[in-house]
Amino acid sequence: MNEEKYLLFDEYLQGELSESARLDFEKQLLENIELASELENFKEAQAQLAVKFGFETDRKAFVANLESISKEHFMADKSKVIALKPWTYLVAATVVLLMGLFLFNSNSNPSFEEYNQYENAYFTERGDEVDYLKQAETAFNTKDFKAAIPLFEAILKTNKTAEIQYFYGISLLENNQIKQAEAVFNEIKSGNSIYKNKAIYGLALAQLKQKDYKGCQEILLTIPSDYEDYDTVQELLDRLD
Amino acid sequence: MSKNTVHPDQYFIEGLANNDSAIIQSIYKKFVPKVVSYIRNNSGDEDQAQDVVQEIMILLFNQAKAKQLQLTCPFDAYFFLLCKRKWLNELKKSSNKGVTIPDDFTSTNEPTEEMVAQTETFEEKQQLFDIMFQRLGEKCQEVLKLSFTLKSMEEVAEKLQVTYGYVRKKKSLCTAQLTQWIQEHSSFKSLKN
After folding, report:
1. Most buried among A130, B4, B69, B102, using CB within 10 Å?
2. How far is CA B176 from the centre of its chain?
């Protein structure tokens, strides 16, 4: 390898050559196509290095953000797509049929306990909140709502997202802090996140828990039919009727 | 790439380069469903679609950061074709029998083909570069990494506890080594054009 040549390239690109040395080098570039092409390749290698390492921090931040957005998108998407599969209609029809038989036999009012099945929490891990998120996720998924509440409160101080708010609201509801739960759900409801309809359903559950069937029905009627779990809403409405 | 024909959709590219969540979300909302349904209809599932989309987004981020990405066609067609071709390549790689990839470059319009080809070339060059970088000695890798991460070569020298003259020389020669290997690599010539 001609070391001198590359040291010269570097000095030239850094603008460190004297005026006369620079002019001389540029003259050589004009006359020697091979040299010019080598310089171009050297520049390109530098540019690659700049992208590879110069933006490493930016790239890490981008990838983390991308993963979280992707997860949110596909989670919301999954439930929608599944709801559209033909066999689920069959399952839904069977459930409705069984429900009908059940009603025919029991004719009782629906209870909160029949409808308080929630999805598991699965939080994205971001930076220093990881510990709290992990603990809150475990507490929630093992139905230790009492333990989950202070953890969610700590997380919400620095990371207020609809997702965390929603799971916090459910935990409050389960822990019989109904007024607080309603306040949280109402806040989500006034926003425009993917948890909006889930929060409205949460408000309906709060009424159901208090055995206010009419109140529950009224709230359920405000949930749009494209809500991902509309089957359950419909079923509950039928039973309340 | 002429600058005067930049497509208005360029803002998606800028959004990716700036890690703008609203733009990224809108890409997912507007353009990703089409990719997902394509992959699901072509022997893939949603998780695989998610991976393909992420890979393409990171590639676009890199290309945009390298200031080498100026859209001359609508983002929609460009993004879809990139994802589609990436998926077909994955299928080809994982299949023993080999899948014949239909030549999409005949079915779409020219500016899109050209944009996709540019991005694929960028990716190939980047992959080649990464392979060559791994061939460098440990010291070279370290000096280069620090040279492009830290603010000045003085800092690099201090960090490595060597002289300024040494790191400057090392940086030039290590970059030179990379340049030579890439030049020698047979695929470089075809990629250059």
Report:
1. B69
2. 22
Pair of tokens at residue A1: 């390898």
Whether chain A has a CB inside 8 Å of the CB on B131: the answer is: no
Q: Which H/E stretch holds residue B33?
A: helix B32-40
Residues B19 and B29: their CA atoms lie apart, in Å, by 16
Encode pLDDT of A18-64 as tens digits: 999 999 999 999 999 989 988 998 998 998 898 889 888 899 999 99
Alpha helices in A14-129 (DSSP H): 19-31, 33-49, 56-84, 86-106, 112-115
Please give, rounded to a whole number of angstroms, the shortest distance from the CA of A170 to a CA of chain B: 26
Question: Cβ separation of B54 and A48 shorter than 8 Å?
Answer: no
| CA separation, residue B124 to residues A93, B7, B63, B88, B117 (Å) | 52, 24, 12, 16, 10
pLDDT of residue A82 exceeding 80, the answer is no
Distance of residue A177 Cα from the nearest chain B Cα, in angstroms: 34
Q: For A193-206, what is each residue's pLDDT tens digit?
A: 878 888 999 999 99
Which of residues 20 through 79 in chain B touch A, CB cutoff 8 A? 21, 24-25, 28-29, 32-33, 36, 46, 50, 53-54, 57-58, 61-62, 65-66
Find tokens 């997702």 and name the residue: A163
Q: Are B16 and B24 in contact (CB under 8 A)?
A: yes
Subunit contact B169:A70, Cβ cutoff 8 A: no
Whole-number average pLDDT of chain A: 83
- What does DSSP assign to residue A222? T
